[in-house]
Amino acid sequence: MPGPVQSIERAAAILRLLAAGSGRLGAGEVARSLGLARGTAHGLLRTLERVGFVEQDGGSGKYRLGAALLHLGAGYLDVNELRSRAINWADALASRSGEAVRIGTFLDGKVLVVHHVFRPDDTPQAMDVGSLLPLHATALGKALIAHDANAAASVRDTVLEPYCRGTITDPKELARVAARVRENGWAAEAGELSVGEAGVAAPIRGHGGLVVGAIGISGPVERICDTRRVPEPRLVAFVCDAARAVSRDLGGARR
Amino acid sequence: MAERFVMSIDQGTTSTRCILFDHGGRLVAVAQREHRQHFPRPGWVEHDPMEIWRNLERVAPEALAQAGASADQIAAVGIANQRETTVLWDRMTGDPIGRAIVWQDMRTGALVDELARAPGAAAVTERSGLPLATYFSAPRVRWMLDHTPGLRERAERGEVLFGTMESWLIWNLSGGADGGVHVTDVTNASRTLLMNLRTLSWDDGLLDFFGVPKAMLPEIRSSTETYGTARRVFPGVRVGAALGDQQAALFGQTCFSPGETKCTYGTGAFLLMNTGTAPVRSDNGLLTTVGYKIGDEPAVYALEGSIAITGALVQWFRDGLGLITTAPEIETLARSVDDNGGCYIVPAFSGLFAPHWRSEARGIIVGLTSYITKGHLARAVLEATGWQTREVVDAMNADSGLALKELKADGGMTSDNLVMQMVADVLNVPVARPMVVETVSLGAAYAAGLAVGYWAGLEGLRRNWHRAARWVPAMEPGRRDAEYENWKRAVERTFGWIRAGEDPAALP
């Protein structure tokens, strides 16, 4: 087993120091308190600031604990914040693919739809933001299961409800599908939630690569897939591009 | 052949953005940079024109790099800009004369009061379509001429140029001191108080009234025509359009027929209704303005209702009260309760704009009881946007004799589903969001693309408009009426807070 990581120990010490005192310390004070070189303390503080665990006061330049730390238990990214950051790229995806776009996050064993862009054909469509979809029978859900340990855990010990003949109801099969999703970087579904419908989705990553949701398209299987029910590579590329663009805006782009 | 794009530059109040669009009107790349807000005194707001120009020099190459495109793949560039913000600069050196005075700046309050009492004041609204107010450019030019020694003489000799942001950027792009073209478009000129709304040219009577020398003014051109070719930043690209940001949004929403109406929700909100080729005078506190003018075709006019504070109230909730850490979180907080709990917030931070135009009003929170939580306050913040929209729509229906059937919404706040549902509920008409919410940028791109033949005509642009979302009214009529009554009572309580003789700009 590798030994402790020094920079994480030091970062933890900085957070304890900021939590203990009056709440506002300069980089120099932090360095002196912990016996660190000023540059080292500064680098650690800047990194902690980047992930939202500390904040720098605009006037004094001093550091305090960040709001993200206080909301650590309440989920990493507010879903309305996610929508606001993703809206341009979701529109572009709907426009390029010609299909409806949804963004989903994991909530209590389901996929919560946090954003919905209509299929761009101006036909009457109803907004379904706020609705819940099954994890195991949607492309969005599979993208989450593959990358979010909590989502994966939530389907491990449950009965997988069959919605159609194509629904995956065997947990082992679902685990194999999840592994393939991780390999490919995208997930698909064809006739698994409702007959004749299909979808493609890819994960959205935030800071440090943490998956915060998934973005995907859905529509009639004959438009999304070829005759062997394999999604069209062109559409898969659009979905992956959109997921990457949103991730880049959230600071979670793969380098 | 490599794919071609149209570039749009949105020079806004807080940032300068460059967006590339493809032939389908789809967003391909975005780059943006914020600029500093200078508040040298209470009520004063300034921008540094050089900083804004340098930001443009940075964001345009960034957007090109993002798309992997070169300047020769850009068919044309269009500019949309913050309106009424006033820049003066030296024709020979290109140096700005002081900082730009921003549309929110209230320093001309006393000057405007004085002008309102002068002979000829009555003709201002008749000729320009605008009320005599601090909001527009002419009093700012006059203020700068009055407060800078020797400036008036230099302006009269043609050594000093005036422009709104699009003029400043086009002049610099097309060569600056070395042969830059000094132009503005009809929509921006229609916000100066100096243009005659019918002839679409500088009005000598108005120039006299405000004491602005004609030699410093840009030439008024159509919204879409090639003004010149860029010699800097992206050399060789034609500059094909300029529009005030709100008119650009009207164009981007493809509101090309009389009665079509859009509302852009940002810091404030701006409703514009296309009223066709004749200006409509307002009896209900709206502005008459030019919507756009395509090449040699007749100008299309619009009625405008401006709301000073919508998104800015959410920002205040975040920065002033610290109850949320990011603006979108307000929706989460507001959804933690079922209703406003009887609480109303009227954000008359610097008075109320349309349809009230009460500069002495100040904001209030009413209906406070110990029952009220931050969730109720969040809801009241969002509802304020809904009710302010309703007031302007009522005025617009009355002035135009048309009844709004559907509102096309855009801007940052359209990502807030709760606000959009509230707007649909209180207007009792559906609210639709287009596939591209960046309609300001899209409108400038459309106009520039039209000018150079990248797009063939308005019908083609209309086919690019697709509905991305639609909210339908779901409020019980009795409740709507009761809530509107409460809102109106709350608004009345904001009136008359600043007493006569108090200088609003001097108050803390």
Describe the model.
Chain A: Residues 68-252 form the IclR-ED domain. Chain A: Residues 5-67 form the HTH iclR-type domain. Chain A: Keywords: DNA-binding, Glycerol metabolism, Transcription, Transcription regulation. Chain A: InterPro entries: GAF-like_dom_sf, HTH_MetabolicPath_Reg, Tscrpt_reg_IclR_C, Tscrpt_reg_IclR_N, WH-like_DNA-bd_sf, WH_DNA-bd_sf. The complex is a heterodimer of chains A (255) and B (508). Helices cover 44% and strands 19% of the residues of chain A. By secondary structure, chain A is α+β, with helices and mostly antiparallel strands. Chain A is elongated. The model of chain A has no long low-confidence stretch (mean pLDDT 88). Chain B has 508 residues and is an alpha/beta fold. Chain B is globular. At the A-B interface, helix 5 of A face strand 3, helix 11 and strand 21 of B.
Write the layout of secondary structure elements.
The complex is a heterodimer of chains A (255) and B (508).
Chain A: H1 6-20, H2 27-34, H3 38-50, E1 54-56, E2 63-65, H4 67-70, H5 79-97, E3 100-107, E4 110-117, E5 132-134, H6 139-147, H7 149-156, H8 171-184, E6 187-190, E7 197-205, E8 211-220, H9 221-224, H10 233-249
Antiparallel strand pairs in A: 1-2, 3-4, 3-8, 4-5, 6-7, 7-8
Chain B: E1 5-11, E2 15-21, E3 27-34, E4 46-47, H1 49-67, E5 74-81, E6 87-90, E7 100-101, H2 109-117, H3 122-128, H4 137-147, H5 151-156, E8 160-163, H6 165-173, E9 183-185, H7 186-189, H8 204-210, E10 219-221, E11 224-229, E12 238-244, H9 245-252, E13 261-265, E14 269-276, E15 287-292, E16 300-307, H10 311-320, H11 329-334, E17 344-346, E18 364-366, H12 374-400, E19 407-410, H13 417-427, E20 431-434, H14 439-451, H15 458-464, E21 467-471, H16 477-492
Parallel strand pairs in B: 1-5, 5-12, 9-10, 13-19, 19-20
Antiparallel strand pairs in B: 1-2, 2-3, 4-7, 6-8, 11-12, 13-14, 14-16, 15-16, 17-18, 20-21
Helix pairs in contact in B: 9-14, 10-12, 12-13
